[in-house]
Specification:
This protein has about 375 residues and is α+β, with helices and mostly antiparallel strands. It folds into two domains: about 150 residues, 2-Layer Sandwich (60s Ribosomal Protein L30, Chain: A), CATH 3.30.1330.10; about 180 residues, Phosphoribosyl-aminoimidazole Synthetase, Chain A, domain 2 (Alpha-Beta Complex), CATH 3.90.650.10. The chain contains ten helices and eleven strands. The longest helix is centred in the middle third of the chain and has 18 residues. The chain binds adenosine-5'-triphosphate, thiamin phosphate (TPS) and magnesium ion (MG).
Amino acid sequence: MSLVGDLTEGELLDVLLPILGSGARDGDGAADHDGQATPDRAHVDEIGPGDDAALVHMPRGTLVTVDGLVEGQDFVWAWPCGREQDPADAGWKSIAQNVSDINAMGGEPRHVFWSLQCPADTPLARIEGFARGMRAALDELAPGCRVSGGDLGTASELTSTVTVLGEPGPSGAVSRSGARPGDVVAVAGRLGWAAAGLALLLGDAPVTADAEPFVQAQFRPRPPMGAWRESAPTSLMDVSDGLGRDAHRLARASGVRLELSGAPLRARADELLPAVRALRSAPVRQDVGTGAAPASPGVASGHSDDDAGAALRLVLTGGEDFALLGTFPDAASVPDGFEVIGRVAGVGPNAATGAADRVLLDGAPLPAAGWDHFAGR
Ligand SMILES: Nc1ncnc2c1ncn2[C@@H]1O[C@H](COP(=O)(O)OP(=O)(O)OP(=O)(O)O)[C@@H](O)[C@H]1O
Ligand SMILES: Cc1ncc(C[n+]2csc(CCOP(=O)(O)O)c2C)c(N)n1
Ligand SMILES: [Mg+2]
């Protein structure tokens, strides 16, 4: 079995760049890693991998985001439920979580920069698989995006840091601070599925067939790319850490209150019932990865929620589905793919007293609960 450490850095690049399909090394006119880059590219005025830095052009300005995926924190090679982590799924997620942030700004991903550190005794096949998963995610989620550079190194755990440059849509970047009283609040994509999958993976029992879709949602999240196209959202963000936590961030950034309705969220919770039932017989192991149960404490820790309550908790606090949370001027302007879940109100003169009522669910304050790396929950 070849190991990453059997290769030089240049040899490893020669293995990975063709898989990533970045173009500058695997065809005529490709750069030589010891020589001068002579890119033979569609955009001849751009410079990609092979030079000291990339040169890119984006006429409407450039959106930039970066996020890391770390072994032990974001995935583990052997899950307590008995499943092995497929490196291709980890590669998929490393792309998905980043192209999602460009999507969340109303933009199109254009360039990826991949910084990979791993132990020298990592099987080469694992890194090749990781790169194949990245390519698959780009093909499906961001076909107009290419790998334009990166960095390789060693570390005691695999760490994949992806930077994505994106191009704002025709009406410009959409921030999380533009929600205005009178707007409607809407969501595109799933809520709670990836968190249910994580709880199942961290559980003490094999995953049953009816719970498998939730595990797939954790392994290969599919952000609703471009769901904002042909619309004019007043604000947008992606739900990476849980609806409660991220809705508070949007409300605060916009200086508004979000009034959410329970009915559409309870309907979404119904979809999670098979996972909740499976979790009843698969208690979450607390000693794996971050040592933290996922953001589904009701299910995970023997909390006395009924199944519907536990499922709603997953919808309200589960991260990593990379849904889009947005606001639109009125219900008629909400595009296909988004579902209205509430309305935007002003904060009122007394709201300075506390952040708790920035987000209401059926009139009651919704806690800013969700994932936090440092709190481990
Ligand atoms: N080390 C850092 N230095 C500078 N800015 C940072 C740093 N870490 C985070 N930020 C900024 O803080 C903000 C919140 O970061 P965070 O990673 O939570 O982004 P997010 O979009 O809210 O979440 P996610 O990446 O999970 O979608 C972002 O604007 C980010 O650029
Ligand atoms: C082993 C293991 N432990 C915990 C989690 C859960 N988790 C990790 S990152 C994150 C939120 C988004 O992160 P970011 O804000 O960095 O984008 C969540 C919910 C996991 N996937 N694997
Ligand atoms: Mg985000």
